[in-house]
Amino acid sequence: MDTTDQSNAAIFKLANTPVSLSLSAPVMIDDGNFVSLVGHRKRGIFYPRAYKNETLKVWGSKPGWSQILFGFPFIFLAGIGIYIIWDAMQNLKARRELSL
What we know:
With 100 residues, the chain is of the alpha+beta class. It has one domain. It has helices at 65-71, 78-97; strands at 8-14, 17-23, 35-42, 45-53, 58-61. The strands form 2 sheets. Strands 3-4-5 form a 3-stranded antiparallel sheet, covered by helices on one side. A hairpin with a 4-residue loop joins strand 4 (45-53) and strand 5. The termini are far apart.
């Protein structure tokens, strides 16, 4: 049984702002593509939760509903369950802002 977790990362600058995008699926962004990003900035680096490449007609995001379902059993461990559900809700909000 293969239990490895694959992560795909893209590190680039957008309007002189460093961007660090890490998803479980491949990140499809090329030079000159029109891309929308939704996420947050921390210590000068922008961390997207979702992206939409209008040029290539592809998108990617961090987990949403599956993460919420995963978080419910941990509600009794308030901190862990609430954080997992909060993080998933932020991912779903990012998707909604990009109309995904």
